[in-house]
Write a structure and sequence with these properties.
By secondary structure, the protein is of the alpha/beta class. The chain has 16 helices and eight strands. It is globular.
Length: 399
Amino acid sequence: MEKELGFGFMRLPVLDENDLKSIDYDTLTEMVDYFMKSGFNTFDTAYVYHEGESEIALRKTVVERYPRDSFVIASKVTPDLLHTKDDLPRLFDDSMSKLGIDYFDHFLIHNISQPQYNAAVKFDYFDFVREKKKEGKIVEVGMSFHGTPDLLEEVLSKYADRLDFIQLQINNVDWEDPNFQARRQYEIARKYGLPVSVMEPNKGGMLAHPPQEALDLMNKQAPGLSPVAWNLRYAASLEGVQWVQTGMNCMEHLVENVATMKDFKPLSAEEHAVMEEVVKIYEKNQKGYPCTFCRYCLDDCPKDIPIPNYIYLYNSGKENIKYLNNEYLPTEVVNYISLMSEHGRAKDCIGCRLCERTCPQHLPIVDIMDKVARFYDDMLDSYDTETGEKIGEWQPPVD
């Protein structure tokens, strides 16, 4: 069974993890060449990825090095960037220029939930992409969706004729999750006859490292098969799924994903049963907030708060609470101090919720930032940050 693997340019290798624009071009070029030589040729990017550098990286490593008819490019522009009628054509042309192409194989209306849909309607986004397709600037029009099933039904009832495919977040954990309802979204897309492109099959890498109990269950059914391979096969086994897009920021990830999809085998009934048990184990072991580090929340934050980093530190701190209340500053606290010296502090959050309207995982970010502030800022008062020595007592706040 043939399934296409998409090389996501959202989480690329970087030389400095604190600078998303510092793309490691030597490693990325090596990865692109391996991907192409393995028989795959679909690359997925977006105008905002890597702070605007992703499309340029795709041009340098793919467009300038391979014949145009040998690869497929998908890119996206989010309605969040639209403020006037002139913005969409400008951003569309700018995206094409950064990529160094004169047409998009796939162009997607990006990150649609309710606020983005409202903006798309206001600025005639669906009519715009239809006209660009008529002009030959777009081969296939898609939409990446992060809203509710009811919203998806509304959008497709009005605009399904403008779309050639839809991109959905699908993985075993989100399939029946009431927050995502991936199954219902998939069923609605199929009702309208739209092929599906899957994003986040590993949920931003979160599903690549399951609890030991789940890992043991997987290994018993299929010894040696990695969780990532399980997840790719889960998504690709669905009828109507034509592409599975996944980020790959090192050669090890790329080799594994290519091997899985090159010799693709749908999940058996027995393997599906295992995945259902794995979901139960995840639910039992769920700790912290499921941030995937997509960084969409950072674009509009007026206080420059490094939201994903603080969520990670909060999750880590809550998990390692017994080690945090010790005699010297723990690593998590040192990292928090470092971040807040260069960016806004969690307590600087003004509650504007611009971050929440763009979060694909629908996280209550404002509430989380309040918890981060109470957790780490209060903890800092019990240490001498110059010497790192403990000078007072600290008790973690009760959520």
